[in-house]
Amino acid sequence: MPIYEYICEDCQTHFEKIVLNKTQEIACPKCAGKKNAIQLSVFSAANGSGNGASAKSSGEFSGGGGSCCGGGCGCN
Predict the structure, then answer these.
(1) Number of helical (H) and strand (E) elements in the chain, helices listed first
(2) Which residue has the higher pLDDT, 26 or 75?
């Protein structure tokens, strides 16, 4: 189930919504407006930046550990 980011074209509210299927109607949580524009998420923009320096290509390991952040914050 993908999460999409939207901006309401009526009241300019930014919000996220889990989309179960393509026919699901998306309404603004603030004004219930149906005119919403999908936004490019920060994760997608950072992932598709094209700089070629990903963790896999540089040999670094980021993640794993089974905790909320991969164990780097001491939350284990």
Answers:
(1) 2, 3
(2) 26
CATH 1.10.260 fits 3-48, yes or no: no
* Annotated domain spans of the chain: 3-48
Enter the tokens of residue 18: 């889990």
Task: Say whether pLDDT at 31 is over 50.
Answer: yes
Global confidence as pTM = 0.51
CA distance 17 to 40: 13
| Beta-carbon contacts of residue 74 (< 8 Å; ≥ 6 apart) | none
